[in-house]
Amino acid sequence: MIHWMFLASDLLFYLLLLFVFFYLIFVYQHDHLQKIWKSIFTQPAAKVSFCIVLFYITIALLDSMHFIVLKDRFGFKADPYTARSVLDLSLMPLPVINEETYSAPFSKHLYQKEWMPTKTGTMQNLFIPLKHTPHIMGTNKIGQDVFYIAIKSIRTGVLLGALTTLLMLPFAIIAAIPAGYFGGWIDDLVQFVYITLSSIPGVLLIAASILAMQIYVEAHPNWFLTNTVRADIRLLTLCAILGLTSWTTLCRIIRAETLKLRESDFVLAARAMGKGSMGIMLRHILPNISHLVLITVVLDFSALVMAEAVLTYIGVGVDPNMYSWGNMIAAARLELAREPVVWWPLMSAFVLMFIFILAINLFADGVRKGFSPRER
Amino acid sequence: MLAYVIKRILYAIPVILVVNLITFLLYFKLNSPDDMARLQLGNKHVTTAAIQDWKKEHGYDKPIFYNFHASALHHLTDTLFFEKSLKMLVFDFGQSDANRNISNDLKMRMGPSLAIALPSFILGIIVNVSVALSMVLFRETWIERSMVLLCLIIMSISTLFYIIFGQFIVAKWWHWVPLSGYSPGWSQFKFVILPILIAIISSLGADARWYRAIFLEEANKEYVQLAKAKGLSSMQILLHHVLPNGALPILTGVVVLIPSLFLGSLLLESFFGIPGLGSYTMDAILQQDFAIVRVMVYLGTVLYILGLILTDLAYTYADPRIRLE
To answer: Potential cystine with A371: which of A1, A218, A291, B99 (Cβ 3.0-4.6 Å)?
Structure first.
């Protein structure tokens, strides 16, 4: 028996995908946008990188459909405190297999020899065979499959990038367009806010906020019962703070572009025809900055995935018990100091992260070329 | 000019005050001094008396904004906000939560931070400009395309990996440089060379691409056409026309970073054991020493705003068409 469960981050992720779906409908209805997107997908690099990004997002989506196993089912033991996902289901039996400790990729035995009693009673130094083979990327210190952990980390990276974007986008647009369009005190106010926010060192603001959140959670243990929910709240807090710090760049770009558009002929014409400011901002300015927003957002996405790793490594990122590339890298520092070296968890995190970020960057390049062909 | 600078400084004051207030609220309202004491003393099984003692010892036992028990002017001055927050405005930083004199620490640690930040900043610009120029020189050939791709690959690797792999391969396998550490004077060379190299490489991708865009824009202008028509070689055009004109936006773009160089790099310094301000901040975050973290937030803000003012001045200096009111 299973019980479906929705974390706050799951719901926000669905909401974001819904927005993407609306954008697709919007593109389908507008010829010039259709043409641009078609030209983007004629570039081989953009095509390939889009498929890779889509693959990662699909995995994140599968991993965002959570359920709790109440009675033994699908090979899972009943456990009301652990959320499983559809991705776990498709990766069975990796989520429930536990070896003793480290084992190298494709190895049939543990990484180091151990002393075992033999039948005759003497002690023998030998390699203990694994319960399950092969682990294509080996196992980690507590015997979990590294491939499974690296795949599970995808959700953290994708959600951090996606939800941060979702949280910051409305604020950036709502603040920046009137600032550029009206000027005057609105502009002064918005500029003051983003200069103030961008002048606070981001890492320290994040450190303070994460700490404040932890203390808040400690003070209200009844609201956050399971570790999964706590980790989820921490992820969302991180998204909100990252949104607050990365909001300023987008705001600056949109404001500058609105300043330019305000003086353009079509806006002047609309104003001369007696259109209201609200209508002009929505019908004429917003569509004309949307490509800038899109390019910035896609580029920011890769920066956010990298920021997750760095912040988690420093200890102010996602929950230490959450599957994430940052946590894998943090663990690797000790693993590299071991003799012989345990290299595969770091390598797995590196490869999966690198492919993802490279794909995003290539795709962002493709989008930029598509929307501003003059820039080459 | 002087009037403008004064105006900008006056404009910066509210920003600094607001940041000061935000950090104060974050560290004293959201996390009360009791919470801090509990964290410092170890979360579980702390008696109220121990918390009170810790607060008294570190000067956290005062009211937050208004002291009803003090006399006359001390209503406002004998408070946490005045002692811990407003005093920072005049660079009176006081004691850290581990009872160290923060101002002394800052003076001691600025040197090692600069020993890494300054060379990586200057060499970084030189390397990035050279790479960007060669991309423009070879534009629309396979050389440029592969360089652009290489830049993209470089910028797709997290700084963490450059540091971890660099330290592992160069220091641990090859034994070319010590794993970590620092010593003042000329012998510091062997300690700082690897962090500097890593800083340059990890910033290469994004910055070189940005500079390339600037140079390309310059290379498409009419005066370059004229120079070509005159019969100048591509190399001459690049070095004598494109470089000086493209250098302006680059220089004015990086000026904002200069003051912040003092603060050093969190990751590099803590990985390589450099006793600079970056590792100082990192240790403060790990040990949750809020006094230090608040000081670093304040310093970071002031230096960033200083950078913004310098940027404006650099613009007018570089481009006489821009006048400052």
So the answer is: A291
Query: Of the CATH numbers 3.40.50.720, 1.10.3720.10, 3.50.50.60, 1.10.10.10, which one belongs to the domain with range B109-318?
Result: 1.10.3720.10
Give the residue numbers spanning the domain of A138: 98-144
Q: What is the mean pLDDT of chain B?
A: 83
A84: which strand partners? A67
Contact A310 B23 (CB under 8 A): no
Contacts of B295 in chain A (CB under 8 A): none
With a pLDDT cut of 90, the percent of chain B lying above it is: 21
DSSP strand pairing (A2-5 vs A66-69): antiparallel
- A137 with A173, same domain? no
Interface test with A, best of B21, B158, B297, B310 (most A CBs within 10 A): B158
Whether residue A303 sits in one domain with residue A226: yes
pLDDT at residue B30 greater than cutoff 80? no
Asked if the C-beta of A214 comes within 8 angstroms of chain B's C-beta atoms, the answer is no
Residue ranges per structural domain of chain B: 2-90, 109-318
Same domain? For A20 and A119 the reply is no
pLDDT at A376 over 60: no
pLDDT digits (tens, 9 = 90+) for A225-243: 778 888 888 999 999 999 9
* A192 shares contact with chain B (CB less than 8 Å): yes
Does one domain contain both A151 and A124?
Answer: no
In the prediction, which pLDDT does B194 show?
A: 92
Per-residue pLDDT of B167-201, as tens digits, reads 989 888 888 888 888 887 777 788 889 999 999 99
Q: Give the phi and the psi of residue A139 in degrees, each rounded to 5.
A: -125, 160
Least confident of A163-172, A267-276, A296-305, B25-34: B25-34
Q: Which residues pair with A231 in a beta bridge?
A: none
Q: Are residues A104 and A133 in the same domain?
A: yes
Rounded distance between C-alpha atoms, residue A101 and residue A106, angstroms: 14
Q: Are strands A79-85 and A114-117 parallel, antiparallel or unpaired?
A: unpaired
Min Cα–Cα distance to chain B from A40, Å? 18
What's the predicted TM-score (pTM) here? 0.90
CB-count exposure of residue A127 (10 Å: 0-12, 13-18, 19+): middle
- Please give the interface size between A and B, counted as residue pairs whose CB atoms are below 8 Å apart: 106
| Whole-number Å distance between alpha carbons of A116 and A129 | 12
Of A144, A171, A205, the one marking the end of a domain is A144
Q: What is the CB neighbour count within 10 angstroms for residue B140?
A: 8
3-class DSSP state for residue B31?
coil
What was the pLDDT predicted at A224? 74
A138 and A225, same domain (yes or no): no
Domain shared by A120 and A23, yes or no: no
Residues A135 and A224 in one domain: no
Q: What are phi and psi of B185, to 5 degrees?
A: 85, -160
For residues A43 and B285, what is the distance between their CA atoms, to the nearest angstrom?
45
